[in-house]
Structures are given as C-alpha cells and as structure tokens.
Automatic annotation (TrEMBL):
GO terms for cellular component: cytoplasm; Prp19 complex; U2-type catalytic step 1 spliceosome. Keywords: DNA damage, DNA repair, mRNA processing, mRNA splicing, Nucleus, Repeat, Spliceosome, Transferase, Ubl conjugation pathway, WD repeat. Its main location: nucleus. InterPro entries: Prp19, WD40/YVTN_repeat-like_dom_sf, WD40_PAC1, WD40_repeat_CS, WD40_repeat_dom_sf, WD40_rpt. This is Pre-mRNA-processing factor 19. GO terms for molecular function: ubiquitin protein ligase activity. WD repeats lie at residues 86-120, 121-162. It catalyses: S-ubiquitinyl-[E2 ubiquitin-conjugating enzyme]-L-cysteine + [acceptor protein]-L-lysine = [E2 ubiquitin-conjugating enzyme]-L-cysteine + N(6)-ubiquitinyl-[acceptor protein]-L-lysine.
Amino acid sequence: HIAVQPPSDATASEANAAMEVEEEKKGVNDVVIEKLNETSANSGITCLDIDQTENLILTGGNDKKAQIFNRERNKTEKTVQTLAKVESNEVNDDGLILGTGTNDSVVRIWDVKSQQNVASFTGHTGRVTSISFSENGYFLATASEDNLVKLWDLRKLSNFHTLTIDEGKINKVVWDYSGHYLAVGGTDMRIYQSKTWNELVVMSENTAEITDMKFGELAKYLVVGGLDP
C-alpha cells in the first residue's frame, strides 16, 4: 500500500506526480528486472535502492555482498564483500561513498571507486534495517531492530545523537533534500527537525507496518509505502 502523508499542505497534483515518479522507479525496464531476477536467484536480494540519478541500482543479499548495477551500461560495476548479510544500503549523492547495514549490527562505509571498507560504526544491538545519507554528505542516519536511530558525523566518524523509539519497530529512515528533516517509519511514521531533534509529528494512518518513504519537493509531502493492502 502506498499513501501520501503531507507534513505541510500539498496539492493533489504534487501528490500524483510523486506517485508517478515512484511507480516509474519501481518499473525500471526489462533489462534491469531481468538482472535483478538473476541476482535474486543467485544470492537472495534482501534490500534494493536506486540512486538520485536513477541510473545506479544497489542491491544487498544473503551472500553478504552489496552490488552497484549501472542501468545504462547494463552491467554490475562494483561489488563489496561484507562480513554479514546485507540488510540496507545507499550511496551518497555524488556516488562516491556506499553505506551498508548488516545483520551483525554494524554500519560500514565503503569507497566506491576502490571498493574498500574505509570506516565501520558499531553501537546498534540489532540488525541495521535502514541507512540514509544527508544531501550534503556530512551525516548518516541509521535505524535498527534495537529501536534506535543513530546519527553519525562522517567528518568525525562518530555518533553525535541517538533517537529512541520506545514503542513499535523501525524499518526506514530518510532525510529530506535540505537535511532539515528526518522521517522515521515502522509501526508509525515520525518526522524530526534536525537542528533540535524535536519530534514534529507522529502519523499512524497506515494500518500495517511502514516499509518505505520518500520526501517530495521541498518536503511538502511524504510518500509512504507499507504492508497494508
């Protein structure tokens, strides 16, 4: 189920446009779908993401690998080998840094060009279900089964803030493009203001778990997908 939750007033046309973009991303093309089916059969895909350019497709699998597939070139360009099953992954906006979250509770940062692990973050005690880079590339948000959202400063390689979700579970974290807001989704959906980390709103319209979210233009609305039919 996909719903549009507006943090502020949004027009129907904006919401419909956002839905069309999401459907286009999901559709990709026959070549990509064929590649994903092949990868899934070989390793069991556990997570999937598409970069800002909509050209790079990231997959993570039970085989402990994270791969970057180039749609235009129709080939897998980069592969990194982690130490545990990959639960979440994302590249930053310039495509130079890859983040992976695994079921051993570790967040790993990779240099895409060299495919080398350049940093590892510990602190979670459950599998890392979601990661999200801020638009400026300075910060990383991570979510885990331990009901914590951790904020990491990639310049200092340190955890500078932790959000505790007392009830329910967390499946997804996502920054808006400005970096002013962070959305947290799972049992419900919450939006935080990143300057103070105050909780601005809690939305629970979904009747089942939220599994994915995406901010619209200028954070005027939020596209939310869940397990409810």
